[in-house]
Amino acid sequence: MNEFDVIVLGGGAGGYFSAISCAEANPKLKVVILEGTRRSLTKVQISGGGRCNVTHNCLDPHKLVEYYPRGFKELRQVFARFHVQHTLEWFQKRGVELKAEADGRMFSVTNRSQTIIDCLQKAALDAGVEVRYGQIVTRCEKQDEGGFVLTTQQQTKYVCRQLLLATGSAPGGHEVARSIGLKIIDPVPSLFTFQVEDPSIHERSGLSMQDVALTLSFSEGKKKFFQRGPLLFTHWGLSGPCVLKLSAWAARELYESKYQARLCINWLPELDEAKIKAVLFSQRKSKKTVGGECPFSFPRKLWEWLLQGLDAECPWASLSAAMEKQLLEKLLRTQVSITGKGVFKEEFVSCGGVDLKEINFTSMECRKVPGCYVVGELLNIDGITGGFNFQNAWSTGWIAGQHIGSWRASSKIHRFDKIGREPRVFSKKKGGGQEGGTPS
């Protein structure tokens, strides 16, 4: 038997942050991370193209929750206690400076994910956290008197008072959660590109627009989804930040429709229909053809694509009311049929996981399984691309670790005695309340 006060299952971002938070809050606790593979923090290593997109430069917790298609309500109370500013201070305290890029993504100034890995591993070592690799847990049993017994693939047994699950979207983690009675929302992909079977789109691979409005719809009566932002043509369909955000918000509906949907594109979201009509009317003074002069700041390849099926050789001066109506429809409501799901190589995100109703978000403890905590992407929480999924891991991991660290192990392996009230975990700054303080 390997007996520990706390076992953290999963050596990813959430697992490390939870273990460090717990061990620093209570150095007397014996904490171990069990990682199923031969290396930990692999997602940290490959994320952000090898730079690790640590978080996003959104310092307002109330706005931060708007970037999470699932879990935004629950994250309000989580980010009230540990948000982006606290993440920056946590890494800065340990010698890692973070920088914000133009799109809000935040990386270490070294531009190397290894910097973040080294920081987390050193912090775990300094806090006395043990890490064991190749420990694939195949069985987890709750004990009647409290605590848990875990059995690995090699038949090694581990006993702990407190169990923290931080296995991300790995199927094995879902099975462990189910085995102790937690409800799992079946995971489906999130953050992906759209496949379109249209050679004219494929031929324009690399073409981009910085500001379009997308509307994704399914059969009549079903919910529609909207996003605005940059769009990119690819050799398989459509991509770009706007598409990725749309795929995240509509992930469940797209899965249920077998990734068949209708996409409506407004190429001029900053202009209303009346203003676009006025621009088209003013073009009647031009001596050029419709195909020879675009009245908007469009790439030529895009203008040519929009004119497909129309008479591009028609002079602007001879533009008929019917053709103007067709052109207006193309500008405001280009219709594209989505036929499948592509991939987004820099992110591996799914929606689904432990049902949020199972969790008390003031502690991250399971309501029906005392002593068991769930953090990070194992929860049915997912954010859009840009560092938001890591912020979920840091925040939920810190809260769980602080709560576990506020307990004191008794002489009996399966009991925990609470140390009075939960200790104050923020130092109050002058002129500010608890929310504005710094995590200890």
The overall average pLDDT, rounded, is: 91
Structural class by secondary-structure content: alpha+beta
Shape: elongated
Unreliable runs, pLDDT <50, ≥5 residues?
409-438
Instruction: Outline the biggest β-sheet.
Output: 7 strands, mixed
- Taken as a percent bin, the fraction of beta residues is 25-35%
Query: In percent, how helical is the residue content?
Result: 25-40%
CATH topology-level name of the largest domain: FAD/NAD(P)-binding domain
Number of distinct helices: 14
Q: Give the tally of β-strands.
A: 25
What would you give as the CATH superfamily of the largest domain? FAD/NAD(P)-binding domain
Compute the number of structural domains.
2
Radius of gyration: 26 Å
CATH class of the largest domain reads Alpha Beta
